[in-house]
Amino acid sequence: MTLSTALKTGDLSALPSRRDEDWRWTDLRGLLKVLPPASPQGRAWFWENPLSGTLDMTGGVVNGRGPTDLAVDAGEERFVGWRFMSATDATAHGAELWVDVGEGAKLTLIESYEGRGTGYVSDVAVNIRLGKDAIVERIIFADDDADAISVVTADVALAPGAKFAQTVLTSGARRQRIETRVRHPGAHAEVRLDGAYLLDAQRHADLTSVVTHGGLDGVTSQLTKGMVTDQARGVFQGRIVVEKGADQTDARMGHHALILSDKAEIDAKPELLIFADDVSCAHGNTIGALDDEVLFYAEQRGIPEAEAKAMLTVAFVCEVIERIGHEGARDAAAAWVVRKLGSEA
């Protein structure tokens, strides 16, 4: 059951619902009573991004229409931006992106999800294949409209020795789910899956991931941090599966979040499913509020409460940003966080 199937067939029963365990906190069937009409062809806007002048190329997908393939040849190094824009109100569309990275190649991929319309429904499928010893860093900026329904699903497959790193930055939507599924071969391959969600009003963001270790000597590191206020809802679901025979796997997962309102909500479900013996795996999950003493200290020095909260939240999320490898992307991510929180910290 997927949103993609529902958009293609018009069958609302194909939508995932709270009866589906992995979707119980992001119910689409109960929300979408009627599918909106298909999106018409839209026009692109100039992407005001400090990285745009340094990119090797930019792919633009508007209302589901645009290029669908990105190939990086063996040994090549590329820095690419890919924009997914929803440009009209109350319409629906789907899109795909196929990324093939050759042996020993290196790709930094910046994906932006831009809500130029309102109340739209968007479904995007991203397929990424890494060749032997290839390196991919994927940074996602998700700026959907507050009334949108948006689903992004990535399927990632690594060859031996490959390295895949991902950072998701999102401000949510009416319903938003960013899901990543990774097939990890072991064989000295490495995966880093990070994310940060900053949610206010009635926005909803669901960061879901599944990493399946299928062979010896694999490494996974995962860190997600979030903040919710007003009536927002954050969802984190992280699952690491270590299959039988995937010995010497090293897997770490952490989710840490702040709740800044009595009406906000966070649902977290970190999971380790281990079927091998010789492994080193751990997960942690913490949810709390900002330290009142630190807030009082800031206010005593003339910093308004709202600004103090923003400064402390920026510092809290900063650990995720610092793990981004590409310097330009790291600076853009830091600026995104400051802009969303309205802080000059």
TrEMBL record:
Single GO BP term: iron-sulfur cluster assembly
Domain SUF system FeS cluster assembly SufBD core: 91-316
UniProt cross-references to InterPro entries, sorted A to Z: Fe-S_cluster_assembly_SufBD (IPR055346), SUF_FeS_clus_asmbl_SufBD_core (IPR000825), SUF_FeS_clus_asmbl_SufBD_sf (IPR037284), SUF_FeS_clus_asmbl_SufD (IPR011542)
Domain of life of the organism encoding this protein: Bacteria
Pfam hit, one: SUFBD_core
Protein name: Iron-regulated ABC transporter permease protein SufD
